[in-house]
Specification:
The protein has about 90 residues and is mainly alpha-helical.
């Protein structure tokens, strides 16, 4: 866990965390939301994909088998809009 002194936004938080992991010699890095909207139970499957030769293993709520639970309409819209902004998603 990395605690920063000031709030600088999500992007800088990702960069600081990835930098800390890489500087510490991490062989794999997982990024997950702390509200358990990402299931920690999926980690072994993602790690196995890399062990089987994948360069990157990604989970998404927008692929077959993915999804969300207990999200209001606004959160769904914000999530979908962020995905569209970042790159086209599979629907």
């Amino acid at each position: 866990m990395l605690h920063r002194q000031a709030r600088e936004g999500l992007g800088p938080a990702y960069l600081a965390g990835f930098r800390r992991a890489l500087d510490g010699g991490a062989s794999h890095i997982f990024e997950m939301d702390a509200d358990f909207s990402h299931d920690p139970g999926d980690l072994p499957r993602l790690l196995a994909a890399v062990a089987d030769g994948a360069d990157v293993a990604l989970g998404s709520r927008y692929v077959p088998g993915g999804g969300v639970e207990d999200w209001g309409l606004l959160r769904q819209i914000v999530s979908r809009a962020g995905c569209i902004y970042a790159a086209p998603c599979s629907a």
